[in-house]
Design a protein that fits this description.
The structure is a single chain. The chain has helices at about 35, 40-45, 50-55, 80-95, 110-120, 130-140, 170-180, 210-225, 230, 240-245, 245-250; strands at about 65, 80, 105, 155-160, 190, 210. The protein has 11 helices and 6 strands. About 35% of the residues lie in helices and about 5% in strands. It has about 260 residues and is α+β, with helices and mostly antiparallel strands. The protein has a 4-stranded antiparallel β-sheet with strand order 3-4-6-5. It has a two-stranded antiparallel ribbon with strand order 1-2.
């Protein structure tokens, strides 16, 4: 089959690309269970630097990252962690054999890249006169604050379309059905469901798939090493609202995980 790609202007996983310190408190939120963390040992949490967790680095210069082949994406010069790219290669091979076309629309986005997305939305004329907290809350429907995005980690990808509706019919429905049935076999999971699970944070994102074997330990490390001041003291508009909006609990940990 052939896939049709669609664009969206209001997504948590939309595009600009790899870059605080404060002691950490205990893990935040209800979703840092062994099912995602893989029961990560304390030493393994130190394998990820604060810069990696907050996106304060350039993936093109990080030895643990590889560039995504041009034929697999419609973006220029984007990266994933090496083990994630290998898992995706295996998944894509299986999808190709099943006649399913997968296209990576977005992958690693560092702090600067995410800040570019955030600032463009912050300046939209429709927000003129809004209070900062209301503006931030509205942007957070789909877009993460810089320093609080899973895309910083090199573990998460956006596939085919940024429109949920695209995945409900035709080629999109076939892609989504295949991913729902098979992605977990390769370590990938849709972490943002329709909230029927009771999770908080971003709205449904059928396009967003996370490689849990690495993202799980990274979430555990984030919860152990990053705290609210790491966001509120960051250089982006509305950063101070991260505290009132409880970003670490409601959004960073606002995910749904596999039951087994």
């Amino acid at each position: 089959m052939t896939g049709v790609l669609a664009m969206c202007t209001f997504c948590h996983c939309s595009e600009p690309q790899a870059q605080s310190s404060v002691p950490v408190s205990a893990a935040h939120g209800p979703f840092t269970s062994a099912s995602e963390t893989g029961a990560a040992a304390p030493d393994s949490l130190l394998a990820f630097s604060r810069q990696e967790l907050l996106g304060q680095f350039n993936p093109a210069e990080h030895e643990g990252f590889e560039r995504i082949p041009d034929a697999w994406t419609d973006k220029d010069n984007i990266y994933l962690r090496s083990e994630v790219l290998e898992a995706y290669r295996q998944m894509k091979t299986a999808a190709d054999q099943a006649g399913i076309q997968l296209i990576i629309r977005s992958a690693t986005r560092n702090f600067d890249y995410q800040r570019g997305i955030w600032e463009r939305k912050w300046k939209r004329p429709q927000y003129m006169g809004w209070q900062a907290i209301d503006k931030a809350r509205d942007i957070l429907t789909y877009s993460a604050m810089p320093g609080a995005s899973r895309h910083h980690w090199g573990t998460d990808i956006d596939l085919n379309s940024f429109e949920n509706d695209w995945f409900e019919q035709g080629d999109g429905a076939e892609v989504y059905a295949w991913l729902s049935a098979h992605a977990n076999q390769f370590g990938f999971h849709q972490v943002y469901d329709d909230k029927s699970s009771g999770r908080t944070g971003y709205e449904l994102e059928r396009w967003h798939w996370s490689y849990l074997p690495t993202a799980g330990p990274m979430l555990a490390a984030y919860n152990q090493r990053i705290d609210t001041p790491d966001l509120t003291n960051s250089p982006f508009s509305g950063a101070a609202t991260a505290d009132s909006l409880n970003i670490l609990v409601q959004f960073v940990n606002g995910i749904v995980l596999p039951e087994n």
